[in-house]
Each structure stands twice: as structure tokens, then as C-alpha cells.
Amino acid sequence: MPGTLFIVTAPSGAGKTTLVRGLLARDSQISLSISFTTRPPRPGERNAEHYHFVDVPTFKALRDKGEFLEWAEVHGNYYATSKVWIREQMLEDRDILLEIDWQGAQQVRKVFPDSVGVFILPPSLEILERRLRGRGTDSDEVIARRLLGARSEMRHVGEFEYVILNNELRDAVEDLAAVVRAARLRYPKQHVRHAPYFDYLEQD
Ligand code: 5GP
User: Fold this and answer.
1) What is the pLDDT of residues 30-61, one digit of tens each?
2) 36, 144, 158, 164 — which has fewest CB within 10 A?
3) Measured in angstroms, how far is the CA atom of residue 124 from the centroid of ligand 1?
4) Measured from the CB, is residue 14 less than 6 Å from ligand 1?
5) Rounded to the nearest whole angstrom, what is the distance from the C-alpha of residue 195 to the centroid of ligand 1?
């Protein structure tokens, strides 16, 4: 398959969603996976656009039928990636981007060892705390819990091939686009993409 599977993981407050949106706006070859979740929609979130919002029994039924490539419990809600959708995109030779947590990333890596993992870090812990407080409405306890969650997610940074510090959004989008571009130029991908050329070169 010439397409590449990208896994993008970040603690909350790292600015992952904005960064991914920036990449998708400039690269039409990538399809973003829409996850399933049991979390209720936030204001402005639409079903099938941000997530497929389902209740817990539906989630469990889909999971037990083997519909998910990976699934995880994050902050008390279930999240999962659709297997069928991924297969469809791969058959169309599309690049795919998954925005998932480290637990999901570990599962996907087992199924697709040539996937490319990118971890997004906030520029510093101080800035992360400031960003988490920035919403203004949350109690100290909620913020402390989020910070702790972010720290434990960040401990998995070493499991990813690439790390981007999201300081200036524009630079971070450039970095992510550079990772995507380099991944597309890997030998196995180029070999499939330009098969007749490579076959000719490899003839005696
Ligand atoms: P949120 O509810 O804020 O949109 O996402 C919470 C966390 O769940 C984020 O870390 C996000 O990456 C993760 N997440 C979203 N979709 C999936 C998924 O399909 N699988 C896994 N494993 N994690 C996901």
C-alpha cells in the first residue's frame, strides 16, 4: 500500500486539534479518521464530523463484533477507531491520520508496524498549565487533575518516532507537514508508488 498511517498523540492543552486542522488545510491527500466515543458532544460538536457519538451499549456491541482497530478508556469515556473505514481509505491509497491517545497508538503500532507516530508536546509545563487555566471556568482541582493526566500521557513520548513542540502554531504545522512529506518518500512507499520504474531499475 502506498498510503501512510499517521498517529498523532498529545496531552490535552498541547494544541493538537488546531495543529492537525492546519495540516489538513494544506494537504488534501490525508483523510482524518473520525473516532467513535461515548463522551457527550461539547457545544458546537456535530455527530459524524467531530466524532461518532454513541452510547455505552452501542460502543460495547461494536467493540465485541470486532469493528474497532483499537479502543481505549480516556478520562472515563470510551474512544475507538473504525476498522472498516481505515480499510476503505487504504484501498483507495489515501494517507490516514489518527488523533488518538497513547494506549490506542500502542495497539495500532502492533497491527501496522510501518505507521508513523508523532507526539505533540506543549513548549513547557508552565505553558501547558497556563493553557489549561486559560479556559477560565475550571476549578483548581479540575486543572490539577488535567495536569496530572497530561504528565502521565507525556511519559509515553519515547514511543513515538517524531516529537513536535507546539510553540508557534505556524512552525508546528510546518514541522508536521515535513514529517508527512518525509514519510511519503520512504523507500517501501516509493517502491509501491512507482512500481514499474523500480522494477525496471532492479532488473539485471
Ligand atoms: P477529547 O474528548 O478531548 O476529544 O479527547 C480526549 C482524548 O481521547 C484525547 O487524548 C484523544 O486523542 C483521545 N482519543 C480521541 N479519539 C480516540 C480514539 O479513537 N482512540 C483512542 N485510543 N483515543 C482517542
Assistant:
1) 999 999 999 999 999 999 999 999 999 999 99
2) 158
3) 22
4) no
5) 37
This prediction's pTM: 0.95
Cα–ligand 1 centroid distance for 78 (angstroms): 8
Look at ligand 1, atom 19, and give the residue with the nearest C-alpha: 80
Q: Which atom of ligand 1 is nearest to the CA of 16?
A: 12
Set of cell numbers at residue 8: 498523532
